[in-house]
Amino acid sequence: MSKCIAILGCGWLGLPLAKSCIEDGFKVKGSTTSPEKLGLLKEAGILAYKISLSEEAVSEEIHDFLFGVDVLVINVPPKLRQRNAENYVEKMRRLHKAIKASKTRKIIFASSTSVYGEIEGEVSEDSAPSPVTASGKQLLESEKLFVKDSELNTTIIRFGGLLGPKRHPIHMLAGKKLPTHGKVFTNLIHLDDAIRVIQAVIAHNWWNELFNAVYPKYPFKDEYYTQEAKNRGLIPPQYQGTGTKMGKKILSSRLIHVKKFRFNTSILS
User: Phi/psi at 263 (nearest 5 deg)?
Assistant: First the structure.
């Protein structure tokens, strides 16, 4: 019998991840909060579930969703910019309780390099997180919730900024006057490599690990986004700030040097 993978959150990353896992011969369960999207998941061969997750409750469907699952990928980013933003940590506590009531014990938690905050210079997995944003703080607390549970085998993947088909930061930055200076490192990863990192964890049983997942090239933001804008016929952003801080350079040390993982897809178009 093929291994069953459940992906909680079949969005921009989760849906192509699910499709790729199916191509690799896995049985895949996938969740969405949108009834309209259920058909899209089913057409892709995904066992689709509508699951809502809030600080008050988790849909009852979560029990069927987790039944018979070997690996659960939690791909639910904080949504704290909305007017009615919820407490992300409480949502994860509800989810954690549901997981403990199931037999699923292998977890991949998709996190973010935002947990490192405004650290300067090179940052590896050994660097102490120091988040400054609400999302970064709640992601870090949620990571701890799963990692500290010795009954679970949780691997944390801290992704850099995701880019890929129909998604690139330049579309939000084009033509804007930005108050920061541009000599700051970029920390990005292409969708294809993000999927490959998750698949590598599953394939090689890299459990109870922590990985940074950032493409190992770090052009300065002003140079990078100016070129990306020109490539797309857009107006480059203008960086108007001054200063000498170069920000953080997120190193994927454990993936590259310990696991010998190789990033295949450049962040440059």
Answer: -75, 130
Q: Tell me, what's the pLDDT at 81?
A: 64
* Phi and psi, residue 219, nearest 5°: -65, 155
Domain ranges of the chain: 4-166+188-216
The topology (CATH level 3) of 4-166+188-216 is Rossmann fold (3.40.50)
CA distance 188 to 113: 10
Instruction: Name the residue type at position 41.
Output: L
- Reported confidence tier of residue 245, pLDDT bands at 50, 70, 90: confident
Find the distance separating the first CA and the last CA of the chain, reported in whole Å: 41
Residue 184 contacts residue 254 (beta carbons within 8 Å): no
Of the candidates 24, 254, 252, 7, the one whose C-alpha atom is nearest the C-alpha of residue 108 is: 7
Length of the chain: 269
